[in-house]
């Protein structure tokens, strides 16, 4: 468990290039990873809503290989709810996508095939095998977009240039301290992390206007509770609008972690099934 908790907050030394391009660099509160950079410790993640008819209960499924890389995502005919892949037009509707890696550890190419088209992600590395650039090319080899990555003197990620920069700050113990992620249009999203006894205690989310950084459009806080050294509950408090919800963790099953979402009244909303 000590190793698992360390995984939750420290970037892996293994070069991992998974995830969907339109999510690259975001922070995932289900896997507690920086998307496309950190390893994912699960083989499969399903979002399930038991309040829907049987045929509609599984909302999407993400599949990962033994190296924690995304190999397939299936939106179960719900693509319009969860978005797609294209960086030029934004995240548009797809039903599924598959990812094939050219190498086990440090792939130079990821071939992507979704329900709209096929394309490649070409990757280059620096001297210590960290990602230097990623280029998005179509099936004819024409480059559409590129990403640049920068690191500090401890080889910790500090910037992803996506045309608009994502910034990453670390504390003295090499734990993620702050992530700043502007969207392409209006908002600068910030996540600030606080730790107690080497565990995340809370994460403060702030949404600022790009035109006026002093104007906060949305503010909230994720509060972490632990039991027997494991995350027991994460409560999100929306400070701006005064509501809250929570995610409760269940480790009773040997093959999976179940994370259940409840609204502020304790009513079930949906749940994640995270298979080991």
Average pLDDT, all residues:
86
Shape by Cα distribution: globular
- Helix fraction bin: under 10%
Helical run tally: 2
- Oligomer classification: single chain
Helix/strand order: HEEEEEHEEEEEEEEEEEEEEE
> Rg to the nearest angstrom?
19 Å
What is the SS-derived class?
Answer: mainly beta
> What is the beta-strand fraction?
over 45%
Write down how many β-strands occur, each being a DSSP E stretch of 2 or more residues: 20
Uncertain runs with pLDDT below 50, 5 residues or more? 1-17, 80-85
Rounded to the nearest angstrom, the distance between the terminal CA atoms is 14 Å
Taking the sheet with the most strands, its summary is: 18 strands, antiparallel, barrel
Describe the structure.
The structure is a single chain. By secondary structure, this protein is mainly beta. Helices cover 4% and strands 51% of the residues. The protein has two helices and 20 strands. It has helices at 2-9, 79-82; strands spanning 27-28, 33-34, 44-48, 58-64, 70-74, 96-101, 109-114, 118-125, 131-138, 143-151, 157-161, 165-170, 176-182, 187-196, 199-209, 216-227, 230-238, 244-250, 256-262, 268-275. The strands form two sheets. It has an 18-stranded antiparallel β-barrel. The chain has a two-stranded antiparallel ribbon with strand order 1-2. A hairpin with a 4-residue loop joins β1 and β2 (33-34). The two termini are 14 Å apart. Residues 1-17 and 80-85 have low confidence and may be disordered.
């Amino acid at each position: 468990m000590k190793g698992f908790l360390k995984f939750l907050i420290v970037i892996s030394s293994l070069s991992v290039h998974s995830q969907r391009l339109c999510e690259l660099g975001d922070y995932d509160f289900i896997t507690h990873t920086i998307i496309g950079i950190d390893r994912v410790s699960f083989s499969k993640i399903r979002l399930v809503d038991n309040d829907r008819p049987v045929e509609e209960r599984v909302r999407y499924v993400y599949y990962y290989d033994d190296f924690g890389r995304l190999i397939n995502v299936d939106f179960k005919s719900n693509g319009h709810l969860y978005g797609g892949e294209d960086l030029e037009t934004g995240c548009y509707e797809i039903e599924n996508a598959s990812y094939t890696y050219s190498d086990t550890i440090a792939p130079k190419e990821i071939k992507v095939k979704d329900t709209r088209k096929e394309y490649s992600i070409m990757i280059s590395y620096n001297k210590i095998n960290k990602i230097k650039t990623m280029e998005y090319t179509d099936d004819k080899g024409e480059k559409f977009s590129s990403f640049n990555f920068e690191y500090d003197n401890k080889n910790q990620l500090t910037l992803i240039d996506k045309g608009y920069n994502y910034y990453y700050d670390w504390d003295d113990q090499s734990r993620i301290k702050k992530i700043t992620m502007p969207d392409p249009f209006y908002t600068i999203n910030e996540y600030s992390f606080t730790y107690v006894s080497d565990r995340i205690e809370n994460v403060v989310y702030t949404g600022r206007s790009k035109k006026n950084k002093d104007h906060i459009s949305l503010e909230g806080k994720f509060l972490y509770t632990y039991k027997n050294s494991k995350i027991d509950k994460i409560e999100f408090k929306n400070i701006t609008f005064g509501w809250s919800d929570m995610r409760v963790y269940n480790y009773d099953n040997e093959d999976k972690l179940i994370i259940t979402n409840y609204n502020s009244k304790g009513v079930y909303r949906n749940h994640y099934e995270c298979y080991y």
